[in-house]
Amino acid sequence: MYKPWSISKIGRANQCPRRFYIQDILKKKGTPVGDARGRIGSAVHKALEKVVHGTPADEALKTASKKMPRDETEDVLGFRNAVESFKERFLRFNAERVWTELRFGIDENRQPIDFWSPKGLFRGITDLAARTDGQFIVIDHKTGRSSLEKCRDQLYGCALGAKAMWPDTRSIRAGVHILKEPSDILWDAPYTDFEVLWEHMLGLIAEAEINAERARQNPELAITGWWCTFFNHTKGCPKCQEKT
Ligand code: SF4
After folding, report:
1. Which domain holds residue 78?
2. What CA–CA distances, in Å, run from 180 to 39, 155, 236?
3. Which of 224, 229, 235 to mutate to test the pocket of ligand 1 (most atoms within 8 A of CB)?
4. Residue 116 belongs to a domain with what CATH number?
5. Is 222 in the pocket of ligand 1 (CB under 6 A)?
6. Which residues are paired to 124 by β-bridges?
7. In 3D, which of 47, 33, 159 has the Cα closest to residue 104?
8. What separation in Å is there between the alpha carbon of 65 and the centre of ligand 1?
């Protein structure tokens, strides 16, 4: 009923019913709270997309931060060495093909489907995917502190997306790239048993469906948490009133 799911939508369903009701059932966007860290992270993400296709780090970061306030631009440019370090490391893979912001959709039969199709069961965007000699790589970039455990569901989703699109893929290396200097990629053990990943994903979706239904039945139930920092679901929410 609430599909297509994504890892972030599953997260929203499990966090605050009120936010899920507004954002995912009524389909109204929350008002993003001005967050410099988020803007800086997204500019560095854009720069990373360019450097893996050959753009020098300086140029990529300058372009990505062009319209930002001066202090934020300086912060973005401060990632130069970290971005350069990732680029050098990535080039060592000698990838035959590289995709950035790779969109994928999967239907209930684990078949690929258009990202936007309402018939999709699950969909996502992979920050960076690459095919090397006989192996597939998926990478999720993180500008703040993170861990493999926190990102594992996201990596499972990206791997399932790649497997659906390229069914002959036998093994996928998935990792979280923590943007620091020198670049650090936290690799998970290679994914070879895609049945296990799929079962895990179906379990997450089943739990999210239950919580989505709770949101539909209790649209005013607001559960505060760290997620309130990023969106302000105005009017009537105790947490929002605290902020204004
Ligand atoms: S501010 Fe927090 S508690 Fe209020 S609706 Fe948004 S996520 Fe829920």
Report:
1. 7-243
2. 17, 20, 40
3. 224
4. 3.90.320
5. yes
6. 104
7. 159
8. 30
- Do 95 and 132 form a contact (C-beta atoms < 8 A)? yes
The total number of structural domains in the chain stands at: 1
pTM of the model: 0.88
Task: State which ligand 1 atom lies nearest to the alpha carbon of 22.
Answer: 5
Q: Is residue 224 part of a domain?
A: yes
Alpha-carbon distances, residue 11 vs 7, 20, 117, 180, 191 (angstroms): 6, 9, 21, 26, 23
More confident residue, 234 or 47: 47
3-state secondary structure the chain: CCCCECHHHHHHHHHCHHHHHHHHHCCCCCEECCCHHHHHHHHHHHHHHHHCCCCCHHHHHHHHCCCCCHHHHHHHHCCHHHHHHHHHHHHCCCCCEEEEEEEEEECCCCCECCCCCCCCCEEEEEEEEEEECCEEEEEEEECCCCCHHHHHHHHHHHHHHHHHHCCCCCCEEEEEEECCCCCEEEECCCECCHHHHHHHHHHHHHHHHHHHHHHHHCCCCCCCCHHHHCEECCCCCHHHHHHC
**2 domain residue, yes or no:** no
Domain membership flag for residue 1: no
Q: How far apart are the first and last CA of the chain?
A: 35
Average pLDDT score, the chain: 89
Residue 160 lies in a domain: yes
- Among the ranges 29-33, 66-70, 228-232, which has the highest mean pLDDT value? 66-70
Residue of 27, 17, 33 lying closest to 237 (CA atoms): 17
